[in-house]
Design goal:
Two copies of one chain form a homodimer. With 405 residues, chain A is an alpha/beta fold. Helices cover 35% and strands 26% of the residues of chain A. In chain A, a hairpin with a 7-residue loop joins strand 11 and strand 12. In chain A, helix 1 packs across helix 3 and helix 2 runs antiparallel to helix 3. The longest helix of chain A has 24 residues. At the A-B interface, helix 1, helix 2 and helix 3 of A face helix 1, helix 2 and helix 3 of B.
Chain lengths: 405, 405
């Protein structure tokens, strides 16, 4: 008998009828002879409703109380889903994160899982019950309720699959799987049937929204095979697995675009050894992540330092730049939010040279200027003007022939 | 410094503005130099919304899952209330029933409190925090979430006041206190300033809806002084306290009416010693509470047995009567739902004779027939036709001069 962990996102349980459909799907897996653990998100729209109420009451609600509030969403949907399973004549029990024994650190609203005690879930499985777990939540060592941040229910599912040594971890969502590019931009985009953890990680952090990078990291670490698929049909979706030899045949797996970054340029930074380190140490201490960095050629003992950060961190960054200015002296700075980052991803790059050249050429031929470049073993990213973002994605998708199997 | 436990009902926190008002009231008590523990119900209307969703998904939801679902209502309002207190610049923390350490038995949807560990709340009070407790809920020994049934948040408040040895327990509601009669029936009804636990218990179980009998029992057992008052003004409400000598001056404290009972008559029951015992043992085993009982004079070796039960138990009773019929043989039975029970309550009755006579006379003079009577040391109840219920209440209120202080 196999053990399957399934995860259902908010859109999959938005409303009574969808909850009933999910219950049928769960019972289907059970009827097929599997033990089933289903992790569920809050009812679609519920989370936004709770945030709106909180902000009306307090524009800056405390993280601890936000977790107390938000965690009710998943508790609610898990109870309703258990009731729906009961009405199909199957035994089920809903459990909160705390009842499952998901222990986290105390970083409210973005807690990290420290440990999971599998005993309770295992016991319920053993007596034949379907276990419905409230996703996205855990408890800290002081028994405060915590939440795991964006994509938290995915993390709950993957972590449970790891600790329970599940045979499969199915992530049900409102799309059919992971695509070679966003189908809204590239109509020829193709569903990817198999992708490696590394590729998926790059895709996720570069803008593909199907799964959060964090849960993929977790899956990679504990070698949990994942199947991302739609809760609205029975088609196979995308399998996310450990790297396999034959996967290298495809040089590029997909093209992504991210529009959530801004470019920041510090001008006339003294060009002395150790200055860049000081700058980025200051920024890191403000808990701001830097993505790409360029340092211009030095002129007259000063240099320009350009880097990208997530737009939502810009406000925080301004204070930090003032400190930097005081400490080391710079002439000024400017920010630019009208950029996009297009990337090509594929583990085939490891053994195929020339991918960068093809990419740069393709953009150049189309008249798109590349402002910044960063590369890793399995991806190449270029910062361009935001207005050319979709055009660039389409050109690259075509050049790397991603529409063909 | 005094410790005050406050309880706010659902109408007091129905909506953002009311939550803010409650926060102001809590902070007011804190500013006045008190430690404050506030117990809160679910946002008005929330409970019905959750029940509706559950029933749409499963007409017969399991009690355990209902508790899982319903408990989110109070968790939500406690978090929102804590945020509202924060926005007034005061430190507060919300706690679920489980976090407070409210241990119950495992009778889901109507659990009874077994113990409360005061440590967590005491620690939070000590460091100066306002503690906001999600009412109505606890956890069983298997760490399942339980709820305390109707009026459960009152019970949470009273139990916390008892275990914390609070100086006061204030029950905030949408009425000004306990009245000598329902003001919608008797416009001259007067707010009672002080009432004994015993009187309040009788009033509650006889139909006054301000507090559930169960939480009054709890208060009596642990001698917790209660102040029932409105959350919409600053007037004193009704103090519920231990019996005091001077309280006996008022012979009758109030008049109540209950319409939730039905009369059941078993006809031609064999009049043999032990038969009534058999009948009522059968009924008790079905978990149905009998209120009043009359046994008619025996004729030809059989007798009629009449009693009242809560209307909602009638369905359950029918099965039981069939068993009784098989076991001991009766001719038949009839039920009558068109009755009302009017009662007068007052500890003064203990030392004043003639109250019953005044009551019976008053009803007789008005042409109201008394069908059943039951009495205790501090109350007299009469079953009458339901159509005369309001008339009877008005007459009795007048005869016992309850409109005068």
């Amino acid at each position: 008998m196999s053990l399957i962990v399934q995860k259902y996102g908010g859109t999959s349980v938005a409303g009574v009828n969808r909850i009933k459909n999910v219950a049928e799907r769960i019972v289907g897996a059970k009827k097929a002879g599997n033990s089933v653990v289903a992790v569920v998100s809050a009812l679609g729209g519920k989370t936004d409703e709770l945030i709106r109420m909180a902000k009306e009451i307090n524009p800056f609600p405390s993280d601890r109380e936000m977790d107390m509030l938000m965690s009710t969403g998943e508790q609610m949907s898990s109870a309703l889903l258990a009731m729906a399973v009961h009405s199909l004549g199957y035994d089920a029990i809903s459990l909160t994160g705390g009842q499952v024994g998901i222990m986290t650190d105390d970083s409210h609203t973005k807690a990290r899982i420290v440990s999971i005690d599998p005993e309770k879930v295992s016991k319920e499985i053993e007596i034949g019950r379907i276990v419905i777990v409230a996703g996205f939540q855990g408890v800290s060592s002081s028994r405060d309720i915590t939440t795991l941040g964006r994509g938290g229910s995915d993390t709950t599912a993957v972590a449970l699959a790891a600790v329970l040594k599940a045979d499969a971890c199915e992530i049900y969502t409102d799309v059919d799987g992971v695509y070679t590019a966003d189908p809204r931009i590239v109509p020829e985009a193709r569903k990817i049937s198999v992708i490696s953890y590394e590729e998926m990680l790059e895709m996720a952090s570069l803008g593909a929204k199907v799964m959060q990078a964090r849960s993929v990291e977790f899956a990679k670490k504990y070698d949990v095979p994942i199947h991302v698929r739609s809760s609205f049909n029975n088609e196979d979706g995308t399998f996310i697995v450990k790297e396999a030899k034959e996967m290298e045949e495809a040089v590029v797996r997909g093209v992504t675009v991210a529009r959530n970054e801004a470019k920041v340029t510090l001008s006339k930074v003294p060009d002395i050894p150790g200055i860049a380190a000081k700058v980025f140490k200051n920024i890191a201490e403000s808990n701001i992540n830097i993505d790409m960095i360029i340092q211009n050629v030095s002129e007259h003992g000063t240099t320009d330092l350009t880097f990208t950060v997530v737009k939502s961190d810009l406000d925080k960054l301004l204070g930090t730049i003032e400190n930097i200015s005081k400490e080391i002296g710079i002439e000024g700075f400017k920010t630019d939010e009208d950029i996009a980052k297009v990337s090509v991803v594929g583990i085939g790059m490891k053994s195929h040279a020339g991918v960068a050249a093809i990419m740069f050429n393709a953009l150049a031929e189309t008249g798109i200027n590349i402002e910044m470049i960063s590369t890793s073993e399995i991806k190449i990213s270029c910062v361009i003007r935001e207005e050319y973002a979709e055009k660039a994605v389409r050109i690259l998708h075509e050049k790397f022939e991603l529409e063909n199997k």
